[in-house]
Specification:
About 35% of the residues are buried. The two termini are about 35 Å apart. The chain is built from 14 helices and 13 strands. The strands form four sheets. It has a six-stranded parallel sheet with strand order 5-2-1-6-7-8, with helices on both faces. A three-stranded antiparallel sheet has the order 9-10-11, with helices on one face. Strands 3-4 form a two-stranded antiparallel ribbon. The protein is of the alpha/beta class.
Amino acid sequence: MNVEVPEREPGGRPLDGVVVADFSRVLAGPYATMLLADMGATVIKVESPDGDDTRLWMPPERDGIGTYYLSVNRNKQSIALDLADPRDRKTAYAILDRADVFVENFKPGGLERFGLDRESVSRRWPRLIHATITGFGTEGGASLPGYDLLVQGMSGFMHVTGHPDGDPQRAGVAIFDVVTGLHAAIGILAALMERGERGEGQHIALNLLSSALSGLVNQTTGYAAAGNNPQRLGNDHPSLYPYGPFPTGDRDIIICVGNESQFSRMCQALGVPDLATDPRFCSVRLRNVNRDELRLLMVEALAAHGVDHWSASLQALGVPCAPILDIAQGVQRAADLGLAPIVQVGDPETRQVPLIRNPVTFSRTPVAYPKAPPHLDEDGAAVRSWLAVTPARGPRSEADGRDGGNGQ
């Protein structure tokens, strides 16, 4: 397979022509670079000879590869390089000579001995957009390992997740790795746009803890702006009620009421229209103050029928509601709604893997899925052949020499 960098043309993909050197591993960085690859960027995944750790994170697995790895590495070219080896380091530099974006999530200071620290990169590749992802920044938190679960704990997320009388709970996914990856992709796109105007690259720094605090939106802002330190409320919302799951005659149903009109229509659907004008519940603030009383009345009404009945009744009146599904049911529900959540990734004549669709739909320049997540060093020969026939991009300082940087 050849490495292709298609020119930007009408009807192509949004990032055709952009080359990304992806030195990241595990989740936050690879998720960001996969999103860029879906949109047309040529992403060269530079791995150690041992490969990305997530290749071995199983179960579950498919064909001996952890599905964790498969989830964030489609549409990439894999080359295995040992940066401690001068020849491999020269190949890494050659990739960066031709790249527009450099993404890495090494421990702070970990790339200095390879001449790939921030200062060396900005000096040698002034047009390069260099995105660095850490767990807790490069100052007081530089020595802390960047595991998502640590961030869930330290950010306050776990403290507000779970039942009031129970233990703090983690999310069922590495949520802040994903949030950081999204922020990284947004920052890279903004930097690409700005570079197009100025012709200069820049360094982008992200860390999981700052991304978590941003992602906690109303909870952290409640503290910053009003001094409120939120506590666990189980499945309840701190500012809206009813807003969460409620038991019915068979299973729980989620009901989300965000305004007075929805509350009135919910009361009508449940057969208790007088609750809409009850002085205890006739405003958002009063429903929050008297939520225990309102819950008893709602549970009593909901016990008369099961989820299917109430879903139909509430939806008919425009009241937001949903059943609680497992992952398999959730994917199937998306399919039933016409969202086509699963796509076949790769060449049907060689290797395809069913994966979850990119959620962004472009009207003119759609995403594509031409390449399955690569095996380790699957594209090493192709990348080297591409380097041999492709000139370096833009100006590069010669101060460091051909193999420049530190540690030579």
